[in-house]
Prior knowledge:
The protein has 12 helices and 12 strands. It has helices at residues 2-16, 35-48, 84-104, 109-112, 119-132, 179-194, 199-207, 218-226, 278-288, 320-338, 357-365, 389-410; strands spanning 26-31, 51-55, 59-64, 78-81, 137-144, 150-156, 165-171, 208-213, 293-301, 305-308, 343-346, 369-374. The protein binds arginine and zinc ion (ZN).
Amino acid sequence: MRSVAVVLALIFAVASAWSIDYTGYTVQRCSTNSEDKRDLLYGITNAFGIDVLGEFIDSVDLLVEPKRFDLFQGLKCKVIVEDVQKKIDDEEVTLQASRLEFLQNKNDSDAYHKTYHTYDEIIAKVNSIAAQYPSVARVSSYGSSLEGRDLIVIRIKGTTTTTKKTIYLNSGIHAREWVGPATAVYIIQNLAEKYGKDAEVTRLLDAIEFVITPESNPDGYSFTWSDDRMWRKNRNNNQGNRCKGVDLNRNFDVYWGTGSSNNPCAEDYHGTAAASEPEVKAMQNLVTGLANKIGAIDIHSYGQYIMRPYGWTNALHPDEAIIRQLGNQIVADISDVNGATYSSIRSAELYPVSGASDDWFTVKLNLWGFCFELRDRGLYGFRLPEAQILPTGQEIFRAILTYADFVLANFNKD
Ligand code: ARG
Ligand code: ZN
């Protein structure tokens, strides 16, 4: 009986989902392998408000609606998804199946990591990890989103009395990048449960407090579950403009407004002022207030990149030699876990932008602010199959430990 009720509830949930229809939309991969082509393509995406889904060293993935197909004729773009809505619908079927599995095995943490979760489920999971490991983990709120959702932070550290350094991790700033928050929860769980059991985790947690915000754009994330699977921004109503949302990763107080859009309809709309958005303001306050900071990472998808500073300029960071070594080490260690290939690059090598969190960590806090772009390289994009959540979690958990080991040994502000 119980499972019949669950199935009916799920069918109802499916029927009411996705009020935005992507029928006929394609994903096109366009080469940007010359300076001219790159300028031309970014010129088109800016002028026509075309959504850049993924960026690579010499190509971009664009979400193109049928009325814009003409623009790309002759540019030799390759259609990599024929019908975006069909793909979303197919994914919805596997999502419901994997969620049913989870709902029937709520206490099995393996089942948890084999599907995606609503904002409420993420909060419940993070709270339950803290309740299970009260001597190492503590959850609190660091503010609320525009629509009034709680912004939560979990702090994880060892039980020794030594003063801890601090590393900050964030994910979820872009709503549709679902594997980010899923990975953050995996990291939270593994840090908490491996303390006192795994030698490396124990040593790190006795030296470092990890401060983690697993879902820093809860309004946008909730909207990807209820209305629009491809939503990226927050849900600011932009003073009644017909286009909603601010790109939180263009809203940080670092060179704000110099490499981003002032058009509310654009996917990279930077808002009305630096840190105009409550989600960004709250994060800046939280992170500014942390003591003894030695590192910070913002987690995104997709593309499989480990990105080091800078992101707003192609100029080299004064510590380029050592941070390149750090990036390369992370990439090598990731590949040892499950064989996945990530690339170590400077953030700006994809496309320089302003107001991003990684640059804010680097420039305003004087850290080696990194940005990770998780799986994949565009085959599934933002809706990575459930079977890849665990392997992604495993390799990025390794990446975080490598980053922590490295900054603990080598980062010195003075
Ligand atoms: N895909 C991310 C974004 O568009 C990458 C940001 C990397 N950071 C940077 N400062 N370029 O926000
Ligand atoms: Zn992103």
